[in-house]
Amino acid sequence: MPKTRGFSLFASPWRWYLLALVVIVIDIATKVWAVERFMYGPAMQIIPGLLQFTYAENYGAAFSFLADAGGWQRWFFGAVALVFSAVVIVWIRRLPSTKRWEPTALALILGGALGNLWDRMLLGYVRDFISVYYGSWHFPVFNVADMAISVGAAMLVIELLFFKDKSEEQGKSSAEV
Length: 177
Description:
With about 180 residues, this protein is α+β, with helices and mostly antiparallel strands. It has one domain (about 15-40, about 50-135, about 145-175). About 60% of the residues lie in helices and about 15% in strands. The chain is built from 4 helices and 4 strands. The protein has helices at about 15-40, 70-95, 100-125, 145-175, and strands at about 45, 50-60, 125-135, 135-140. It has a 4-stranded antiparallel sheet with strand order 1-2-3-4. α2 packs antiparallel against α3 (about 100-125) and α3 runs antiparallel to α4 (about 145-175). It is globular. It starts with 13 loop residues before the first helix and ends with a helix. The mean pLDDT is about 85.
């Protein structure tokens, strides 16, 4: 049976853009849920003494960096997210269709960046709702987009540290044939 070269949503790179879209949708849906549930109500203990859902508004970047800078940071972080997202879109597009780990990582980062960009441009801040704490120690409140960015970044680091040489060797050996 001959192969046809038509458009397929699940062909590379579209499947990675679809994964980024799924991250965006889940992020926005969970933020809407958190606003409705926790903005004016009490926090929900998930694991007492460790994990709760609450509501927070982050006017800065990661860990509220520059949160009290006066408003210019909204547009600055928005522009950075847009430029970075464009770079990631092109990066995914240029990857070989045989790659799986790297484009998955990039799609998670892209979805997270665009999910937070949505909040930042629409509201002027990012909605966070997941709180991890132990005793008096509290990790900064975060959201699904932040988790996607963190997991994607960790995957890229793992790729670079442990798998980059193997993929380069495979690329060289297939080019020599």
